[in-house]
Amino acid sequence: MGVTAARGFRAAGVTAGIKASGTPDLALVVNDGPSLAAAGVFTSNRVKAAPVLWSQQVLKGGLVSAVVLNSGGANACTGPLGFQDTHATAEKAAEALTLNAGEVAVCSTGLIGERLPMAKLLPGVEQAAAALSADGGEAAAIAIKTTDTVHKTAAVTVDGWTVGGMAKGAGMLAPGLATMLVVLTTDAQVDSAGLDAALRAATRTTFDRIDSDGCMSTNDTVLLLSSGASGTVPDPDAFAEAVRAVSADLARQLIGDAEGASKDVRIDITGAATEDDAVEVARTVARNNLLKCALHGEDPNWGRVLSAIGTTAAAFDPDQLDVAINGVWVCKGGQTGDDRSLVDMSAREVVITADLHAGTAEATVWTNDLTADYVHENSAYST
Amino acid sequence: MGVTAARGFRAAGVTAGIKASGTPDLALVVNDGPSLAAAGVFTSNRVKAAPVLWSQQVLKGGLVSAVVLNSGGANACTGPLGFQDTHATAEKAAEALTLNAGEVAVCSTGLIGERLPMAKLLPGVEQAAAALSADGGEAAAIAIKTTDTVHKTAAVTVDGWTVGGMAKGAGMLAPGLATMLVVLTTDAQVDSAGLDAALRAATRTTFDRIDSDGCMSTNDTVLLLSSGASGTVPDPDAFAEAVRAVSADLARQLIGDAEGASKDVRIDITGAATEDDAVEVARTVARNNLLKCALHGEDPNWGRVLSAIGTTAAAFDPDQLDVAINGVWVCKGGQTGDDRSLVDMSAREVVITADLHAGTAEATVWTNDLTADYVHENSAYST
């Protein structure tokens, strides 16, 4: 059910004709209230798509009544006219639903640098408005797919209230955030400040710690909308944990569907002096192309883990580094440890653990292997 | 001629049996003087191979009488015993040539985390000492190849003195430095301090600005040895330029032979506020896997250039960015510029130019595309 798992929300996904493939490409999520409280986090890329610039303005008011999302075009690097296109999209949704356009967020995903086909997109908004339903969450999740092979939804219910959501993203997965659009909804009664706190805490350790290919998007948007329709004010910790759990579920689904990947790789850094050190080391290991190739070849090449760690500024002594691959400590004290032939890497999920022996902080980053399929998919994306 | 282009040097390359392939794997370069002045730069990776730790000590004395180089094993992450192996290698060369072991530099390249087969390597040093000749530069360059498809040498002669050199490196090419071993020689009369200044200036804009795959090695070493055999004290600027020219030539050869690459890509950043900004932007663009895939597909996907630039801390306004690919300004003012169909990317060399419009500083970084062949080669390297 995704975004319609929580009460007070309707959604739809339709085919507006933006994508040449003729598959669904426009989604609409509407909050029927009584509350319209919302929070959002956006890409930290300084080159931001028009819908990001627009939605950041909308979120400053702390209220979102509807979200329009399209696949088939990112509307990034499109200048003032691209921004006008986003504005017109919000106005069209506001007109169709009798809302305030200043409370309509817009998200786009697809190729950078091309204008959206507004003659198709605007009628699509009307079509989606007419198709809204309280079980439209799946259709909406399907309509935001780009190179995703499956649509992604998740939900948890706690003490009479629910947090649900949908996500898309398969390439350009890197923190800050990934090339992802995520809409989370809840019927718990939480104000904008409470939503913002829960959302930032959740994204920091979930969406911000998946790093499929080190490439940061211009369009990343994660929204959290509250309808308050459950009539229940949740315990803040329980609410934060529910938002984190749904975010972690969706983040794991994103890594599992990354473009061309054959391995989902969890990198656990332990024994770090600080959490920042642990994240820096984990991310550096996650981005090492040579290691990612070795993982693809099911080669427990721990030398590439050490050479990656060696490029960071984290506190560690090279002669104290321990590295395990799928539980086998193939490197102990910076040199050869247990027999690498004991490592079984045949499963899709691989766990790399590195103990820095410099403290008690830790962090986990998820990544993928690097494959010929990734190269093929991304060498032919725009042409 | 490479390292024997300058007078006062002899070299050899032999097959010691370190490599399973049975190809040459041990090189020796000897400086017959009268000067033994030398300088060196080494990997900035904090995980350093035993030969790097050894040679750094040797270079502190400013004198190098011989360099032993082996392919077939990096002797990195091998602990105290690995360091003893390097020491024994220097001692063997000193014994064979009646030199001081403290003036014998050692370089190794190959797989990380495995001890060298000393029972083969030490007799190889004796064999190489017996094979030394004043035209052995080619044989030495051949013996240091790993995944290199061709050996790399270069030389320039100016006013009666010569700078020559050899290089190896095909993967793990990233700054600070790449996975490269380079030995430069000169018969000009320059003391250690003068060699050091010229070498650091040269590597800063050549070997440090090739970034094939963003992966930094544990073994990188660039040495510059002077025999003084020309009897000529060169003009310092002319000498620095000769060292830079030979370094640039070898660096370009390394990029041209990078593992699996089908494109050599020059990234020129102009209009930067500072040279550091220009280098940061160039390097970030060079490391963007999605862009590297697009280059492989001959797709002038400038959106991926902008999304990479947007992740840097350099000074720029997103609405002022101009990007050209092979001379066609496909992005102007942060949005679509000239027709991308005008871009011809069929040649192996591709030039990406980005003007930040934030100042007058500039920098160039070389990289390669990302290919299925790179994945194949590096997913099967150690197993």
Automatic annotation (TrEMBL), chains A, B:
Residues involved in substrate binding: T146, K168, T179, E259, N378, T383
A GO cellular component entry from the record: cytoplasm
Transmembrane region(s): none
Active-site residue numbers: T179 (nucleophile)
Keyword annotations of the record: Acyltransferase, Amino-acid biosynthesis, Arginine biosynthesis, Autocatalytic cleavage, Cytoplasm, Multifunctional enzyme, Transferase
Site (described: Involved in the stabilization of negative charge on the oxyanion by the formation of the oxyanion hole): T109, G110
Site, as annotated: Cleavage: A178, T179
Annotated pathway: Amino-acid biosynthesis; L-arginine biosynthesis; L-ornithine and N-acetyl-L-glutamate from L-glutamate and N(2)-acetyl-L-ornithine (cyclic): step 1/1; Amino-acid biosynthesis; L-arginine biosynthesis; N(2)-acetyl-L-ornithine from L-glutamate: step 1/4
Protein EC: 2.3.1.35, 2.3.1.1
Catalytic activity: N(2)-acetyl-L-ornithine + L-glutamate = N-acetyl-L-glutamate + L-ornithine; L-glutamate + acetyl-CoA = N-acetyl-L-glutamate + CoA + H(+)
Subunit architecture: Heterotetramer of two alpha and two beta chains.
Function: Catalyzes two activities which are involved in the cyclic version of arginine biosynthesis: the synthesis of N-acetylglutamate from glutamate and acetyl-CoA as the acetyl donor, and of ornithine by transacetylation between N(2)-acetylornithine and glutamate.
Protein name from the UniProt record: Arginine biosynthesis bifunctional protein ArgJ
The organism of origin for this protein: Peterkaempfera bronchialis
